[in-house]
Write a sequence for this structure.
């Protein structure tokens, strides 16, 4: 159940429960305090900047996957900004260098291309980010290939064999990212692969960024193990350690509240919703996965089974099959859970399907607040 009344909400709407968000942040703060690491918000997973005044009370900054996220972190979060991208354009350096604290390059060629810009800023007495290199541990435990940054031949990160005999001077950080929605045992095994393959680089750097994919706020996550793994690593190497989860910050804090628009009769009838899988929750098609709907069951578990379909013209814009105790009717609210991370950041306006409202609910005050409502002009401005 939600702590707010879905029937009172104009749909569709993404709603983030600020009480649940704070609960996640308190757990992350505990990890920081006990392990000595610093945790960053990965904007690629959750960029709802209206919540940044709350988030920055607990976390050290943001990690950005390019110029625009870096600018958002600098302007709205106003703490540390760590930047990584598979490649940077030279023109982007003029904006990134003054605002980034750490800048991780994907390859030695990218480091060599952009090192002169960093050297020039340093020589002129200007702020210069600490440069690092993203490495590929070649240790893969991610089951879905689309989300596996260590799959064979993956473009993300430099393999150990490519560093043989190379000049690594000037690099101050090592960055790896190999997890996806995983527990601390996977980090422990991945970290062992990093230490085995990249000991030379580890010896010289000042900081290590262990990337994202840590499902720290999940109920069954072993935080004690995570704390031990980080503590032990720091005692062996004496490095600053960063984690950059995105999903863990907003895990189980958000909802997508929708309405039934129509029922299409069939052997398994389809309820047409005022939302869309392809436009508003693409991970349900990409991962793929079946999001939970409050009050529903598996197909056939309850008396009435439906497909839940979206508003776009894409034939496959179907979220999944669900069963309900009573027949669905037009106007009825359907509430999807865990819809804060990798939803708002990945939405599209395909077909001109209206974007959901972005809203918050504060359980301490019972205040429902629409932060942003989208319309035709938002759709039009994406085009030319």
């Amino acid at each position: 159940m939600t702590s707010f009344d879905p029937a009172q909400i104009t749909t569709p709407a993404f709603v983030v429960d600020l009480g649940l968000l704070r609960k996640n942040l308190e757990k992350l703060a505990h990890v920081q305090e006990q392990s000595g690491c610093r945790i960053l918000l990965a904007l690629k997973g959750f960029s709802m900047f209206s919540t940044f005044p709350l988030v920055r009370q607990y976390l050290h900054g943001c990690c950005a996957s390019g110029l625009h996220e870096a600018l958002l972190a600098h302007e709205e979060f106003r703490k540390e900004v760590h930047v990584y991208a598979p490649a940077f354009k030279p023109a982007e350096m003029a904006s990134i260098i003054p605002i980034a604290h750490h800048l991780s390059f994907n390859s030695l060629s990218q480091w060599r291309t952009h090192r002169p810009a960093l050297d020039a800023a340093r020589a002129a007495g200007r702020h210069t980010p600490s440069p690092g290199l993203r490495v590929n541990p070649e240790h893969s435990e991610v089951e879905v290939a689309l989300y596996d940054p260590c799959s064979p031949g993956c473009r993300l990160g430099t393999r150990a064999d490519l560093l043989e005999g190379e000049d690594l001077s000037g690099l101050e950080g090592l960055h790896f990212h190999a997890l996806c929605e995983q527990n601390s045992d996977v980090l422990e095994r991945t970290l062992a692969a990093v230490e085995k393959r990249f000991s030379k680089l580890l010896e010289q750097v000042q900081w290590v960024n262990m990337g994202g994919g840590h499902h720290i706020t999940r109920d069954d996550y072993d935080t004690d193990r995570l704390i031990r793994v980080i503590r032990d690593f720091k005692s062996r190497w004496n490095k600053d350690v960063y984690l950059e989860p995105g999903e863990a910050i907003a895990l189980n804090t958000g909802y997508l509240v929708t309405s039934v628009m129509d029922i299409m009769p069939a052997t398994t009838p389809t309820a047409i919703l005022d939302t869309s899988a392809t436009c508003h929750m693409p991970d349900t098609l990409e991962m793929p996965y079946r999001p939970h709907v409050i009050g529903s069951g598996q197909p056939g578990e309850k008396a009435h089974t439906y497909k839940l379909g979206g508003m776009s013209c894409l034939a496959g814009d179907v979220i999944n099959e669900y069963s309900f105790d009573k027949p669905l009717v037009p106007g009825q609210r359907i509430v999807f859970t865990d819809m804060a991370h990798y939803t708002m950041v990945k939405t599209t306006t395909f077909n001109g399907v209206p974007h959901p409202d972005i809203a918050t609910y504060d359980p301490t005050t019972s205040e429902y607040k629409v932060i942003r409502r989208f319309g035709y002009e938002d759709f039009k401005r994406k085009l030319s």
